[in-house]
Write a structure and sequence with these properties.
160 residues; mainly alpha; two-stranded antiparallel sheet; 5 helices; 2 strands
Length: 160
Protein backbone atom coordinates (compact mmCIF):
# COMPACT_ATOMS: atom_id res chain seq x y z
CA UNK A 1 0.00 0.00 0.00
CA UNK A 2 2.70 2.49 1.01
CA UNK A 3 5.57 1.06 -0.98
CA UNK A 4 8.33 3.36 -2.15
CA UNK A 5 8.40 4.43 -5.76
CA UNK A 6 11.64 3.47 -7.49
CA UNK A 7 12.59 5.27 -10.68
CA UNK A 8 15.56 4.65 -12.93
CA UNK A 9 16.64 7.49 -15.18
CA UNK A 10 18.53 7.32 -18.49
CA UNK A 11 21.98 7.34 -16.86
CA UNK A 12 21.21 4.28 -14.77
CA UNK A 13 20.81 6.16 -11.48
CA UNK A 14 18.09 4.89 -9.20
CA UNK A 15 16.04 7.40 -7.22
CA UNK A 16 13.72 6.34 -4.44
CA UNK A 17 10.80 8.55 -3.51
CA UNK A 18 9.50 8.44 0.06
CA UNK A 19 6.67 6.16 1.12
CA UNK A 20 3.70 8.46 1.50
CA UNK A 21 5.19 11.93 1.80
CA UNK A 22 4.76 14.66 -0.75
CA UNK A 23 7.86 15.89 -2.46
CA UNK A 24 9.25 19.00 -0.85
CA UNK A 25 9.00 22.00 -3.14
CA UNK A 26 11.18 24.95 -2.19
CA UNK A 27 11.38 28.32 -3.81
CA UNK A 28 15.00 28.95 -4.70
CA UNK A 29 14.94 32.65 -3.71
CA UNK A 30 13.58 31.96 -0.22
CA UNK A 31 15.83 29.02 0.55
CA UNK A 32 19.06 29.73 2.37
CA UNK A 33 21.50 26.95 3.10
CA UNK A 34 23.52 27.67 6.22
CA UNK A 35 26.24 25.38 7.57
CA UNK A 36 25.65 23.61 10.88
CA UNK A 37 28.47 25.52 12.57
CA UNK A 38 26.72 28.83 11.81
CA UNK A 39 23.55 27.55 13.47
CA UNK A 40 25.51 26.57 16.56
CA UNK A 41 27.26 29.96 16.58
CA UNK A 42 23.92 31.78 16.42
CA UNK A 43 22.55 29.66 19.27
CA UNK A 44 25.69 30.35 21.31
CA UNK A 45 25.33 34.10 20.73
CA UNK A 46 21.67 34.11 21.71
CA UNK A 47 22.30 32.07 24.86
CA UNK A 48 25.22 34.33 25.79
CA UNK A 49 23.04 37.42 25.37
CA UNK A 50 20.35 35.82 27.53
CA UNK A 51 22.89 34.93 30.21
CA UNK A 52 24.37 38.44 30.25
CA UNK A 53 20.88 39.96 30.47
CA UNK A 54 20.00 37.63 33.36
CA UNK A 55 23.16 38.53 35.26
CA UNK A 56 22.51 42.26 34.69
CA UNK A 57 18.99 41.88 36.03
CA UNK A 58 20.35 40.04 39.07
CA UNK A 59 22.80 42.88 39.73
CA UNK A 60 20.04 45.49 39.36
CA UNK A 61 17.79 43.57 41.74
CA UNK A 62 20.67 43.18 44.21
CA UNK A 63 21.38 46.93 44.15
CA UNK A 64 17.69 47.64 44.78
CA UNK A 65 17.28 44.72 47.17
CA UNK A 66 15.76 46.77 50.01
CA UNK A 67 12.82 47.74 47.80
CA UNK A 68 12.26 44.08 46.83
CA UNK A 69 12.47 42.88 50.45
CA UNK A 70 9.83 45.42 51.51
CA UNK A 71 7.67 44.50 48.51
CA UNK A 72 7.79 40.81 49.41
CA UNK A 73 7.24 41.38 53.13
CA UNK A 74 4.40 43.93 52.79
CA UNK A 75 1.56 41.37 52.41
CA UNK A 76 2.57 39.71 55.68
CA UNK A 77 3.15 42.69 57.96
CA UNK A 78 2.05 40.67 60.99
CA UNK A 79 5.00 38.28 60.70
CA UNK A 80 8.43 39.30 61.99
CA UNK A 81 11.32 37.85 60.02
CA UNK A 82 14.27 36.90 62.18
CA UNK A 83 17.89 36.25 61.37
CA UNK A 84 19.46 33.21 62.99
CA UNK A 85 22.93 33.53 61.47
CA UNK A 86 25.16 36.59 61.02
CA UNK A 87 25.10 36.59 57.20
CA UNK A 88 21.53 35.43 56.73
CA UNK A 89 20.16 38.83 55.64
CA UNK A 90 22.90 39.12 52.99
CA UNK A 91 22.27 35.57 51.75
CA UNK A 92 18.52 36.28 51.63
CA UNK A 93 19.03 39.42 49.54
CA UNK A 94 21.34 37.53 47.17
CA UNK A 95 18.71 34.77 46.80
CA UNK A 96 15.99 37.34 46.15
CA UNK A 97 18.17 39.02 43.51
CA UNK A 98 18.95 35.70 41.79
CA UNK A 99 15.35 34.51 41.78
CA UNK A 100 13.99 37.89 40.63
CA UNK A 101 16.64 38.16 37.90
CA UNK A 102 15.86 34.68 36.61
CA UNK A 103 12.12 35.25 36.86
CA UNK A 104 12.14 38.48 34.91
CA UNK A 105 14.61 37.19 32.31
CA UNK A 106 12.47 34.16 31.40
CA UNK A 107 10.51 36.09 28.72
CA UNK A 108 13.74 37.28 27.11
CA UNK A 109 15.28 33.79 27.16
CA UNK A 110 12.10 32.38 25.62
CA UNK A 111 12.11 35.14 23.03
CA UNK A 112 15.71 34.44 22.08
CA UNK A 113 14.96 30.74 21.65
CA UNK A 114 11.88 31.53 19.56
CA UNK A 115 13.92 33.92 17.39
CA UNK A 116 16.39 31.09 16.87
CA UNK A 117 13.66 28.64 15.86
CA UNK A 118 11.44 30.94 13.71
CA UNK A 119 13.65 31.01 10.57
CA UNK A 120 13.17 27.26 10.23
CA UNK A 121 9.37 27.45 10.30
CA UNK A 122 7.08 27.61 7.31
CA UNK A 123 4.87 30.62 6.67
CA UNK A 124 1.80 28.88 8.08
CA UNK A 125 3.65 27.83 11.21
CA UNK A 126 4.94 31.37 11.71
CA UNK A 127 1.42 32.78 11.42
CA UNK A 128 0.18 30.47 14.14
CA UNK A 129 3.20 30.70 16.48
CA UNK A 130 3.75 34.47 16.64
CA UNK A 131 0.41 35.35 18.29
CA UNK A 132 0.95 32.53 20.77
CA UNK A 133 4.32 33.98 21.75
CA UNK A 134 2.80 37.40 22.40
CA UNK A 135 -0.07 35.94 24.39
CA UNK A 136 2.14 33.65 26.45
CA UNK A 137 4.43 36.52 27.50
CA UNK A 138 1.45 38.64 28.53
CA UNK A 139 -0.18 35.76 30.41
CA UNK A 140 3.13 35.09 32.19
CA UNK A 141 3.26 38.66 33.50
CA UNK A 142 -0.45 38.60 34.34
CA UNK A 143 0.07 35.39 36.34
CA UNK A 144 2.93 36.99 38.28
CA UNK A 145 0.76 39.95 39.20
CA UNK A 146 -2.14 37.69 40.18
CA UNK A 147 0.09 35.62 42.44
CA UNK A 148 1.50 38.69 44.18
CA UNK A 149 -1.98 40.10 44.78
CA UNK A 150 -3.77 36.90 45.74
CA UNK A 151 -1.58 34.15 47.06
CA UNK A 152 1.71 35.57 48.30
CA UNK A 153 0.39 36.61 51.74
CA UNK A 154 -1.50 33.37 52.32
CA UNK A 155 1.42 31.19 51.21
CA UNK A 156 3.86 33.03 53.48
CA UNK A 157 1.44 32.77 56.41
CA UNK A 158 1.17 29.05 55.75
CA UNK A 159 4.91 28.49 56.08
CA UNK A 160 5.62 30.90 58.97
Amino acid sequence: MFSPKINQDTQGLITVKPFCFKELELEEELTLAVPFSDHIEELRQRLLQSFVFSVLLMVVFFVNSQWWVTLLSTPVSTIKFIQLAPGEYFISTVKIAIYAGLLFSVPLIGGQLILYIIPGLTKQEKESVLPLIFLSANLFLLGLGFFLQSFSSSSIKLFY
